[in-house]
Design brief:
Blueprint lengths: L18 E8 L11 E8 L2 H10 L6 E3 L6 E3 L4 E6 L8 E3 L4 E5 L4 H10 L2 E2 L11 H7 L2 E2 L2 E2 L4 E7 L5 E4 L6 E2 L2 E2 L6 E8 L1 E2 L3 H18 L19 H7 L6 E2 L2 E3 L7 E3 L5 H19 L8 E3 L2
Parallel strand pairs: 2-5, 3-5, 4-20
Antiparallel strand pairs: 1-2, 6-7, 7-15, 8-16, 9-10, 11-12, 11-15, 13-14, 17-18, 18-19
Helix pairs in contact: 2-4
């Protein structure tokens, strides 16, 4: 039970919630890059009712950021002057509705989802085995892997807004293109309904995943402190090829460098700051533009002052 909520001046009134509410939390512990400053407030609601109460009492002017697995996020060194919300394990679940639909909690790990569905004789969502994040994050950026995107199978989303209002929305009412969506920033994703195909051959499903996982291990630095692909692929181009053609492969700033295995992955070698990583990324963007006239857009979400 959380008490003394009035201590936090960003809240309009005193109230109690189940969950964890802390101040000045080190954000580097929650991201794959392991860099970044502190969050003014950090809230992990135990259940939906706790999240609803918290949002209703949160000053509308207080910035809020929803953090998933932290696999695609770079918090700047000065931290985040607002509240970072991370959903608890109660928001992690998989419920098969019928022979072609499944409901998934927003905090569910994408790789875990792919394997569980494969074992249950559900196919089509194996590509999630290549996405090291949560379903909520996958929806937000329309994450994808192996030529498939989240939007290809997404049918319905359960959301809650800053006023604590819950409603269902449909992907076709919004823009969901390559690594980009236009969902309102106030929306917090709670649950997604996906379409899948029934395939009782479990070994066939698992073999597909194992092939994708093996490919990922051979081509990506998954054991390093990284954040997945640094830049989006421009239309008709591969970002890693542009980076190599521009002579960026050996660039580094401080303890931030490019992976030798995959040029579109920035690595924290140990002791890098968020400034190092962002500065290296901007150097790469500048060199690619000067050499090839192509603008690389960040795929990593950069958050904070």
């Amino acid at each position: 039970m959380i008490s003394n909520i009035s201590y936090y001046k960003n809240l309009k009134s005193k109230s109690d919630f189940n969950g964890k509410l802390k101040h000045n939390v080190d954000l580097s512990k929650f991201t794959w890059l392991q860099t970044g400053g502190k969050a003014k407030l950090f809230f992990i609601p135990e259940k939906l009712i706790d999240l609803k109460k918290f949002l209703k009492n949160l000053n509308i002017d207080t910035p809020a950021f929803i953090l998933g697995a932290g696999s695609n996020t770079l918090f700047r060194d000065l931290g985040y002057n607002g509240v970072v919300i991370k959903l608890s394990r109660n928001f992690e679940y998989i419920k098969i509705i019928n022979d072609n639909e499944v409901k998934v909690g927003a905090a569910t790990n994408c790789i875990k989802l792919a394997r569980i569905l494969a074992r249950k004789g559900a196919s089509g969502l194996e590509f999630f085995s290549g996405i090291p994040g949560t379903i909520g994050g996958a929806i937000k950026m329309n994450a994808g892997a192996y030529e498939k995107d989240t939007s290809d199978f997404l049918r319905k989303i359960k959301t809650i807004n800053r006023e604590g209002e819950i409603k269902y929305i449909y992907p076709h009412d919004y823009k969901m293109i390559y690594r980009e969506t236009n969902f309102p920033e106030e929306f917090i994703f709670l649950e997604a309904t996906f379409e899948y195909k029934k395939n009782k051959d479990v070994s066939d499903n698992l073999n597909k995943i194992n092939e994708l996982v093996t490919k990922r291990k051979l081509t990506q630095p998954i054991k390093e402190k990284t954040s997945g692909s640094t830049f989006k692929n421009p239309k008709n181009f591969k970002a890693w090829k542009l980076i190599q053609k521009s002579g960026c492969k050996n660039l580094r700033v401080g303890k931030a460098s490019l992976s030798k295995l995959h040029s579109n992955f920035i690595i924290n070698e140990g002791g890098a700051t968020s400034k190092d990583i962002e500065k290296l990324g901007e150097k790469i963007r500048e060199k690619v533009f000067k050499k090839l006239g192509i603008i690389l857009d960040w795929e990593i979400r950069i958050i904070g002052e």
